[in-house]
Amino acid sequence: MKIWVDADACPVVVKEILFRAAERTGVNLTLVANQALNTPSAGNINSLQVPRGFDVADDEIVKRLQPGDLVITSDIPLAAEAIEKGGHALSPRGEMHTKENIGARLNMRDFLDTMRSSGVEMSGGPAAFSQRDKQSFANELDRFLTRNTS
User: What secondary structure letter does DSSP report for 113?
Assistant: First the structure.
């Protein structure tokens, strides 16, 4: 099992949690981004720089993903592709995407996209990343690793 991180928009604090978890468990961790990233010097932690462009990092993750792998992303379409390919998807806020809930999340995302593109002004965005989000992510990651590594 490997962990793939959609790293361009991943909060630094989430990357730090992932680094510690990879060091503790020995699981392979790869951060995929369109810019160079610093990672700890551990044999199981690395980064993959992809060219700039729309969904280039997402496409690379999906291409390399194997059944059972975990993808860390806030991108709902990427999470859906990972699940479709037999992987797992966890948001940086600690929400585990599943076959049961990904359809509704995709529909909501598409609905909001349609609203924005039709000129409906939508204020705000996601709330700032909080201590509660950090704890939720760490807890869900720990539960996942406990169930899926030996």
Answer: H
